[in-house]
């Protein structure tokens, strides 16, 4: 008990002595109760009643009362001391607050001045950021009516998100993606912006893809024709296969294959129609064209390809070997072997070749 009281800073000697008396009485009662419990266990009722009748618990009253009185007094003393310390602390706090107010008035003026200057600098910074957004991200061509931090920052985030989505679409193979808001009216304003450069990159990728498709298409066609030549030895069958496959491959409507030959009755060479194909059918047509005659003969003479997109109404019947229907596009190509023309291929289509 002494060590506990010392730890709590309890130094009232009179109260400590009262607690010690109280502790002695308690110990005596504890010992008597232990003895009484032993008598009960041993069946000694007389010994139990002898101690019980002494009523030693009545001796606890005076020391308890004295102890409580001393402890309450000590508690009141501690409460008074705590209140005095609190009042002193409040007075010190008021003094400090008044001093801080007096010292803070000049500081507030300085802060307001800096805030005003910072506001001007911040507005200039926002204006510069907005101009950079238009220059390097995307320029819609519209004047920015109100420049605020929220508008500028949100605009930057939106344009960067558009760029990210644009790049993701391209990486997924979607070359038809467009930058929202970019059109012919503001395209020149975005020559160096992110939107403009990404659009140019997409256009170049489209061009590369188209060229790759053209090369693949050409290689597949050449491979198909090479396979036809390897499989057949009969000239008539080869001509029929070539013209029919070409019409289907080119998605055309009509075609004719001429070879240069000299017939027994003629002294000069001429173009002989070897195979004709129209509307998914072979056409059995006999036709002979002299050098320079019509467009097929002119192609033979000049050794140059002719491509017509405007066809006269009577062209097919008069100058071509194809027959009746009037196409919208005609392609006439000389067939060469070591720069020597050996035949002419004529293709007609209702769509552009």
Automatic annotation (TrEMBL):
Transmembrane segments: 94-113
Domain of life of the native organism: Bacteria
Identification of the protein by name: GAF domain-containing protein
Keywords, alphabetical: Membrane, Transmembrane, Transmembrane helix
Residues of the GAF domain: 233-349
Any matching Pfam family: GAF_2
Lineage: Bacteria, Pseudomonadati, Bacteroidota, Cytophagia, Cytophagales
InterPro entries in the record: GAF, GAF-like_dom_sf
Entry keyword Transmembrane: yes
